[in-house]
Amino acid sequence: MHTDLKPQSTKSRFIRSKRLLWLMAIYLLSIMALATVAGLFRLLMTAADMKSH
C-alpha cells in the first residue's frame, strides 16, 4: 500500500530531483562552453595559419 506518502518525503524527493536538474543543466552548460571555446580556438588557429602562410 501507499503508506509512505508523507508530505515531507515528497518534498525532499522534489528537492532532490530539482538539485539533479540543476546538476544536469550545469553539466550541459559546461559542455556547451567547452565546445564553443574549442570552436573559437580552432577558428583562431586556422586564421593564424592563413596569415602565416
Give a quick summary of the entry:
This protein has 1 helix and no strands. By secondary structure, the protein is mostly helical. It has a domain at 20-52.
Overview of this protein structure:
By secondary structure, the protein is mainly α. It has a domain of 33 residues. The protein contains 1 helix and no strands. The radius of gyration is 23 Å and the shape is rod-shaped. The relative contact order is 0.07. The model has no long low-confidence stretch (mean pLDDT 86).
Structural class: mainly alpha
Low-confidence stretches: none
Helix content: over 70%
Instruction: Give Rg in angstroms.
Output: 23 Å
Number of helices: 1
User: What is the rounded distance between the termini?
Assistant: 75 Å
Topology as H/E string? Answer: H
The overall pLDDT, averaged over residues, is 86
| Count of distinct strands | 0
Shape summary = rod-shaped
Largest sheet: none
Q: Note the beta-strand portion.
A: under 5%
InterPro entries: DUF2474 (IPR018895)
Pfam family, one: DUF2474
Transmembrane segments: 20-44
Protein name: DUF2474 domain-containing protein
Chart the SSEs and their pairings.
Blueprint: H1 7-52
